Amino acid sequence: MNHYFATCPRGLEALLAEDLAGAGGTDITTVPGGASCNGSLETGYRINLESRIATRALWRVTRGAYRNEAEVYQLAYNVDWSRLFSVDRSIRVYVTAIRSPLKSIEFITLKVKDAVCDRFRAETGRRPSVNTRTPEVRIHLFITDQQATLYLDTSGEPLYMRGHKLAKVGAPLKENLAAGILRLSGWQPGTPLLDPMCGSGTFLLEAAQICLDDAPGLSREPGDFGFEHLKSFDAGLWRKLQREAAERRRETVALPIFGSDISADAVARTQQNLAGAGLDDLVTLQQSDLLTRTAPAPSGVLVANPPYGERLGSEEELAAFYPVLGDALKQRFAGWNCWFLSADTRLPKLIRLQTSRKIPLYNGALECRLYHIEIIAGSRRDR
After folding, report:
1. pLDDT tens digits for 318-373?
2. Where are the alpha helices (DSSP H) in the chain?
3. Where in the chain is the domain with CATH 3.30.2130.30?
4. How far is Cα 310 from Cα 312, in angstroms, rounded to an integer?
5. In sequence order, what E strands does 202-270 have?
6. Cα 75 to Cα 13, 53, 119, 331, distances in angstroms
7. Considering only CA atoms, which of 172, 169, 170, 150 is closest in space to residue 160?
8. Contact at 8 Å (CB) between 256 and 192?
9. DSSP class of residue 235?
């Protein structure tokens, strides 16, 4: 039985726990920014293949108490690394510290790298090379005030890198955060969905893949996952899981998914990304301004990641934009449930519509809120 720790955008831990359970994980616990579970080798593969929320999945190698750098070095040296991966694999060490008394992250990173290389040299007479850009094996050290834990990264590149994004725009939304917002909104395949500020199309791509039951890890190239470079890699099991996921994929048909943007360039980038994923015939795109466009269906779910001061646009521009946005929603989107991700805490007041939910989420390091606004015909007093 292996122990895994998966990371995710803060605020999505409960959804990540659901993904771990779906992958066969047991004894699941959540902490800010992640969740842990016990599971088999297959569980680890399924997290990487099927979780839409995880950023990466780490396999715990060892843990123990420590008081100084020398004890962390010894903890790492005591691991028989040559049983886990070949000396011919390139490595990189990453360190995350919370309330650690150690003074230098850079120094402890170097000590762990030395411990791994020294143990390899003692076992094989050789040491692995270090590659800081594209390592085949990523070793993660997590240290708190008293305990150090070493992990091997089974994911490689972050799992939100689905392999579809060919064209990007400024301040893009990560795919796993977009998938989490779609789940939090209660949207289900078959319900009309609109992103009227589509940027590079992240919400649209995620929604289309959910409708097709397209496993998010299925489009990555061979060798992209970290577990493929470990000695425990079971190629037969991995091919079986990939084949099952491919056979589960639904046939492609036009979907009630709609996207628009005021920028022609953003619409073109979204079209390019959808085409790269083979989804361009399934999603309806147009260039239009949210303030003037009409709803594509009598009811549905609207999701948007509008500009805010930390990202794009000035505070004055946004203060003028929100009331006009509220008016446009009342006039053209009665019957729709609207969800806006924003770091601008003025949005609920200035949009002049009742906000029924405010869910804390993090977009990277930026603290945001996911605001839910239900648009009804007439006034709530009339209702």
Report:
1. 888 999 999 999 999 999 999 999 999 999 999 999 999 999 999 999 999 999 99
2. 13-22, 41-50, 69-77, 105-124, 175-184, 202-211, 235-248, 264-276, 315-332, 347-351
3. 2-153
4. 6
5. 257-261
6. 29, 31, 11, 64
7. 172
8. yes
9. H
CB neighbours of residue 289 within 10 Å: 13
Structure tokens at 293: 């466009």
Architecture of the domain spanning 175-214+251-374 = 3-Layer(aba) Sandwich (3.40)
Q: Is 19 helix (H, G, I), strand (E, B) or coil?
A: helix
Beta strands 284-287 and 193-195, pairing class: unpaired
Per-residue pLDDT reduced to its tens digit, 86-124: 999 999 999 999 999 998 999 999 999 999 999 999 999
The CATH code for residues 2-153 is 3.30.2130.30
| Domain span(s) for CATH 3.40.50.150 in the chain | 175-214+251-374
Does residue 7 contact residue 59 with C-beta atoms inside 8 Å? no
Residue with tokens 């009598």: 298
How many CA atoms lie within 13 Å of 104's alpha carbon, on the beta-carbon side? 8
Half-sphere exposure for 14 (CA within 13 Å, toward CB): 7
